[in-house]
User: Fold Laminin subunit alpha-5 from Hondaea fermentalgiana.
Amino acid sequence: MADEDEVREILQDIDALSTGARRLSIGSASASSLAWTLPTESELTRLEYENSFLQSAETLLESKCAALDSRLEETESLLRVRDKLVQKQRQELAAKDAELRQACNRVSSLEDAARTHNNQLAELRAAAHNTARDEDAALEMQIRATTQACEENQVLCAEVDRLRGELRQAHADAERVNASNLAQGELQIALERAQARVSALESQLEAEKTTNAHSMQKIDQENEKHKIECSLLREQLSAVSTREGDLGARLHEQLEKSVENASHALRRADRADAQGRQLERERDAAQSELEAERGRRQRADTEATMAVQECARLQSSLRLEKEERARDAAQAKHDAEDTRRRLCEVEADLEAERESNRALRQKLAEVSRKFEAALTQTRKTAGAATQESRALREMLRECESLLLERASRPRATRSSPHTPSRNRLSQRDSEASRLIAQSAESLRMRKLRMGTAQSPRSMASPSSRAARTSLRHNTFHELHPLRRSALSGHGQDLSEMFASLAT
Assistant:
């Protein structure tokens, strides 16, 4: 405003000087017209006054012109300085334009990198999804195979329990008939081995179930962790894309502002000759705008640097995640191989157990057949022995009746060798001897049959010897004491017969 006032005062002074010059020209013309006449005193006084006024006006005009010339020189120097500043500002604006273009190129490259990272993330997400799906399918197959193995093991356990019950029944039957001790011991040992094997398989299956449960829980946790990480990465990528979009829009706005400011600066430079002090204010405003633009540019550079660092961090995180996925995939593959190997071992153990169970079933069937044959033979032998014991009792009753009749016979009659009753008694004695011999022969055949029905070990056992001794003792002492006295008192052949029976 002060410069405009000064310019206005200079223009007023110029107008006043032009007015004085016109008056001076009029006065000179009037003086030239009056030079041929003599002036009066009043005219001379007026002319002197006008001359002095014109001299003072000329002096003032010369001083004003000198001040105006000095002001014009200062204005020209300021204009030259402003031209240099404008050129410098143009150069700075061109450099800033180039930097903004570079920033736009970097932003576009960052956008391309972000799109590439998004594509890589999508591929990684698809690969992780496919890997997780394949791992889930493999784990489901493993769980299905393990469940089938458990069911087969349960069936085997039920079969072993059934075999155990049959073995207990066979053991009870064998104890009742007191036979097949060696086969029973072998079956007991085989049963204990089968029980130990079944218990080992059950513990191994329980451990396998626990391991499968732990692996399933671990895989679920890893899937949840991968899902959370994918969601976090998706959020970070969306935030980065949003920030990149905001940064691009901000950079475009700044570029447009810079172009507009440059055009305004050029127009102000074109009007610099006529505006004067306004150009200084505009220069100050341009400097302030340049400072603000520099600050915004610095902030934009800082944001671009942060975006580059964020992209580098995302790249490193993606690389780390890719390595971690590769390690997890390798670990999952190793775990799957280990699980597959353990399942093969379990299948091999189950196959061996099936083979042992088949052999055990065959052996048990063979033992059952032998036991049934022995039981049938024992029943037949027992039936024959019962019939023979009945016949023997009948014979013994007849012998008893004969012996009682002989014992109750009078001594005179017994001493008479030529009586008819002695002949009858001799016939009865011979008949009794024949019956006793027949019973002894039947007992010997019974002993032989019992010996063929039993094993040599069972025949040689103390229980079998005690049974035979008891049988002989009971057979010998089954007779009445009166019969024993009659036998001891009468007939050497009868005593020898019973002695042979006792031996």
Summary: The CA atoms of residues 129 and 223 lie 9 Å apart. Residues 409-502 form one domain. Residues 31-39, 412-418, 453-462, 467-493 have pLDDT under 50 and may be disordered. The longest helix spans residues 41-177.
